[in-house]
Every structure is written in C-alpha cells, then in structure tokens.
Amino acid sequence: MVNCRCGLIGTGISTSLSPALHEVEGRRQGLDLSYSLFDVDTPVALKSTLDDAERDGFAGLNITHPFKQQVVELLDDLSPQARAIGAVNTVVFRDGKRVGHNTDAYGFTESFHAYLPDVAKKHVVQLGAGGAGAAVAHALLSIGVEKLSIIDPDEQKSHDLSQKIGQKPSDLTALHTADGLVNASPIGMHHHPGIPLPAELLHRDLWVADIVYMPVETELLRAARAAGSRTVGGTAMCAYQAAAAFHLFTGIAPDTERMLRHLDVLLA
C-alpha cells in the first residue's frame, strides 16, 4: 500500500469525523492513509504545526476555524479559486512548496444543487463573514444569486467581505425581502451552541441552509422547519469538500457518494 499522511488544523476539533472519513476511503482506494488532528488555538501554533507536517512528509493538511484566512500568509502559492476567495481550507505540500486550495466553495455548491436545486435565489442573506463565509459567498454568487446581504457581529468583516464581492453589508431587516438564508457562522456548532438570529424572523417563504454539520440538526434548522421553511444542513457540504480535499492530497478521485453515505453513518 502507498503511504499517505494528512491531517486537520483547527481549534476545538477533537470530535472531528475527518480522520474516519479520509482513512476509510483511503483503505478502499488501496492507500495506507493516516489522518491526524492538530487542535491548536494560536497563530504561532498554526505556523509550527505546518512546519512540522511539511518536514515530516505529510501530503497536506486541512484547515478549519479559525485559521482559514490566517494560513494564507504562510503559503507559497494559492489556487485561482482560493486567491479569489481569500481563504484556504486545504494545503498541499508538493515539490517543496505549500499550495493553498479552497474546497469549501465546491462543497457548498454541490450540496446546494443536490438539495435545493429549484429554489428562488435572487436575494440571499448570509450570516458570517469569516473564512467559511468568504467561500460560501463566492459559491452563492457563482450559482446566480444577484443580491447577497452579508451580516456578521464584526461589522468590519461584513464590510470587507461585501466590498470584495461587490455587495453591501446589511442587517436582519434584509430577511423581509430575501429568498434564502445561509448560516456560514460557527453559531450552532457543539462548541458554539445557539441560534444565530431570532427564530421569529424565519418564515415559510424563506429557504434555510446551515453549513454546520455537528450537530446534524442545529437549533437554526429546527426553528426553520417549525416555521415551514425548506432546509439543508451541512452534512453534504462536508462530504463534498472532503472528497475534493482527498483528491488533492492523493491524486486519486474518491467515491464521493460512498463518502457521503459513510458520513451519514458516522453522524447517525
């Protein structure tokens, strides 16, 4: 078997399912693939972990909250999409260089097409303007959203992302005229419990997508379904972006549907 070492850098990632998802698919593809978790919480630790992984012969690393934007300055090059987004969730070590990629945008796009293929999307409200939010915003505009209202507790982040993508920052009143709502913030994750907006603002004419996948059913999704909204959670996005990262690490196209089924089993 060909050996392949990969991993994930982030904060509060001890319950991540990425090791099981990648290692099992690796075995099914005839690889001796190991996937390690590096739970760090400072930029200094991010840099040292990258340095150590590259020195130790890793094929690459996934990057998650809160480092998707901070990691950019530590890389030698970016894929065109990662450069356009300004955030990286996959780093590949190859030929003495660190190259950053973004598979989040692909993951969101594929999930959206699979589960909300026929919804109106002229105006969408997005909660979150961090690394994941930048990727989701890029994806939403690429699939035909005309007006994207960005909302983040950090008003400077809302302003910066909105300016970068040619849109305007907004507030929750935008929901009155929106077709859809996307939560691209960490609110709803196990380590950031809660709901990112007042539930009474949800209504049946508003579809809702939440990129959080642990837990599978977030408080936002429960409230949206209670209001009669069509919804999609973060499970499919997670599987699709993981499959794209697997391909970048190994050079082998994985069985994406098999990875999605495996993730469903892991989350059951």
TrEMBL record:
GO CC annotations, alphabetized: cytosol
Binding site for shikimate: S16, L17, S18, T64, N89, D104, Y213, Q241
Organism: Actinoplanes lutulentus
Occurrences of domain SDH C-terminal (ranges): 235-262
Catalytic machinery residues: K68 (proton acceptor)
Similarity comment: family membership: Belongs to the shikimate dehydrogenase family.
Keyword set includes Oxidoreductase: yes
Gene that this polypeptide is encoded by: aroE
Catalytically driven reaction(s): shikimate + NADP(+) = 3-dehydroshikimate + NADPH + H(+)
Positions bound to NADP(+): G128, A129, G130, G131, A132, I211, G234
Listed EC numbers: 1.1.1.25
GO molecular function list: NADP binding; shikimate 3-dehydrogenase (NADP+) activity
One Pfam entry name: Shikimate_dh_N
Keyword field contains Nucleotide-binding: no
Protein name per UniProt: Shikimate dehydrogenase (NADP(+))
Chain ranges of the Shikimate dehydrogenase substrate binding N-terminal domain: 8-91
Keywords, sorted A to Z: Amino-acid biosynthesis, Aromatic amino acid biosynthesis, NADP, Oxidoreductase
Gene3D superfamilies named among the record's database cross-references: Leucine Dehydrogenase, chain A, domain 1 (3.40.50.10860), NAD(P)-binding Rossmann-like Domain (3.40.50.720)
Function: Involved in the biosynthesis of the chorismate, which leads to the biosynthesis of aromatic amino acids. Catalyzes the reversible NADPH linked reduction of 3-dehydroshikimate (DHSA) to yield shikimate (SA).
GO biological process, one term: shikimate metabolic process
PANTHER family linked to this entry: BIFUNCTIONAL 3-DEHYDROQUINATE DEHYDRATASE_SHIKIMATE DEHYDROGENASE, CHLOROPLASTIC, SHIKIMATE DEHYDROGENASE
Organismal lineage: Bacteria, Bacillati, Actinomycetota, Actinomycetes, Micromonosporales
